[in-house]
Amino acid sequence: MDLQQKIRTLPLSAGVYLYKNAEGEVIYVGKAKNLRSRVSSYFHEGRLVDAKTGTLVREAVDVDYIVVANNKEALALENHLIKQKQPRFNILLRDDKTYPYVKLTLAERYPRVYVTRRLRKDGSSYYGPYFPANLAYRIVDLIHRHFLVPSCNVDLNRSHPRPCLQFYIGRCLGPCVAGLTTPELYQEAIRDVKMFLDGRPTDLSRSLRSRMEKAAESQEYERAAKYRDLISTVEQLQEKQRIAAVEGDDADVFGYHYENDMLAVNLFHMRGGRVLDRREFFWEELPEHVGTAALGSPGERSSPSFDPAAFFPSFLTQLYIGQPYVPPNIYVPVDFEDREVLEDLLSEQLAAGGGRATRVHVVVPQRGDKRSLIDLAGNNAKQSYDQRFRVMKPNQRQIQEALQDVLGLPELPKRIECFDISHIQGAETVASMVVWEDGKMKKSDYRKFIIKTVEGVDDFASMREVVTRRYKRLQDEKKTFPSLILIDGGLGQLHAAAEALGALEIINQPLASIAKREEIIYVCGQENEPVVLDHHSPVLHLVQLIRDEAHRFAVTFHRKRRQMRDRSTELLEIPGVGSGTSRRLLEHFGSLQAVKQADAAALSAVVTRSQADAILEHFREKA
Hints:
By secondary structure, the protein is α+β, with helices and mostly antiparallel strands. It has helices at 3-8, 35-41, 45-49, 51-59, 71-85, 134-147, 165-168, 183-197, 201-217, 221-247, 308-320, 339-352, 368-389, 396-407, 459-477, 491-503, 538-571, 579-589, 592-597, 600-604, 609-622; strands at 15-20, 26-32, 62-67, 101-104, 113-116, 125-127, 251-259, 262-271, 274-283, 329-331, 361-363, 415-424, 427-437, 440-441, 447-450, 484-488, 511-514, 521-523. The strands form 4 sheets. Strands 12, 13, 14, 15, 16, 17 and 18 form a 7-stranded mixed β-sheet that branches. α15 (459-477) packs parallel to α16.
């Protein structure tokens, strides 16, 4: 049965259709209230004239379909299939960043809290997303300080001889060592953390107050004081949240700019009536099937190749369906088909997730303050477009803030120290450390290391040695540690550096590595969620610049060492001249040729008279 015959047999009900090419690949996924009518419309004469629709139809040799009960189910299924199949004729969500969640590992014997950017079905509870991104880290830090639940990577299924520094500074209950806490006390702390993250401050305060009173009655005054301090912290946070709630509703605001077949979209996250963060999306080459009745952003000429009314429903569906939180208000610049269906679907999702709001509203403001917000987002999208596609360099502060956000650093990165190992088949293994500080490379702080304790080829052991030597010295000299330690290499080098820092009991030191080929950034403690940045990203360019400089410095040092070794080989053939004497001669004269041309007086200034005579005799015989 050919494609046209198959289309004539399609049902008249709602569903999802999947166009396939000759290789059986799904090239486009769409939804329809009436499958037969919708799919056959692609072959109408007027649409075949359009180049992009025509391209889709020319490649399609088969169509599959799935019947559903209504348009709402079709919308949800379309979104799922687009994310699963990644068809090239669909608009695919391309994000410049992901927002962090707080993960509570309830499936573990001793649950812990982490910041994560990836949701998994692993029995853990996830809270978020949080923006700005450092908010998640501040929340986890608060949990460490007040609830004493850790984020470590220690194996808690067995007992260890002694706890880490976190226990000694009062930020962990110490479940890793027998006798420091009990399962009952630890589970009590986890229940408190869960109530805190669930947004149940009143219940948490009531529970803490009851325990405080019981501890006081039992004359356990130290424990009662801890409960009192926790109550104070929870109530202060509750008051801040109450003030924010009075200021305004939560909303997401969208604006866009389209030009030269490239698209930039800006999303403003408003929480409590204030803009807390901005998110950027880019498409360098829009898929070859996005609609034809186009409108540009405000003040822009219309384009026959982009239709925002066709773009936004697919974009919003991919962005929000399946997310744990959707704001009650979503402001978009254009109206589109199935807007009310999307509202219903997202409202059901919000209600199922226990959200405070009962309804999600997708609104197209026409005037007033809300329209001004749309225009503001559109203007920012134009700036994003210029910065991305016109290669306008962002200022240094913006890059630092973006790096802090991407890697989840606790503070704005002011100093980065980067390490690289260099050798040829294990010979003359050396390491380099370069420094980036306040927006530029600081060559006066560069350091060279000759690997002393490692034999043969072992980059991991070499990395452990050099990181240990560097930061043991900083510890002894009580100097400030860098904002970030960057390792040139993959997970093996990253873990070697982490082991070195752990052995020195250096904790909470930001540490990351960048793999050479893939250009993937691994953050210590979040290795399962590597950071993959767009090749246009100025953050990636900065990390690459620092990494490449470390590599250049290491290779240059290694080459110099190898040349010194090669040049000293002939000198070592001379009786009475050892490696130390050979090195002094080369350092003093600068080259082997200069040593050959030196007279007895010049040589005697560096070596003994007998060594000078032996050198002169050696080169006379060679002449």
